[in-house]
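User: quick one, sequence for these tokens?
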């Protein structure tokens, strides 16, 4: 399980992190499947249990239950 307060502290210390997460994708017939994505972690909202990640120039929010892992950004 990911510790939001630890992740927030690491971001505050300017550590560059990436988020690996499951993203829900709806098909034309209404079925929902998940794809695994990874993006730069921008911020977290501890109380709301949300992660903010950059994906193709957009900022997305990711729910705690969709998070797979938080890893160090190799571009540090």
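Assistant:
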């Amino acid at each position: 399980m990911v510790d939001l307060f630890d992740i927030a502290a690491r971001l505050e210390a300017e550590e560059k992190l990436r988020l690996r997460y499951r993203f829900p994708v709806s098909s034309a017939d209404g079925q929902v499947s998940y794809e695994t994505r990874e993006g730069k972690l921008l911020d977290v909202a501890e109380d709301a249990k949300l992660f903010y990640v950059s994906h193709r120039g957009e900022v997305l929010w990711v729910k705690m239950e969709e998070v797979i892992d938080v890893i160090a950004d190799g571009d540090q």
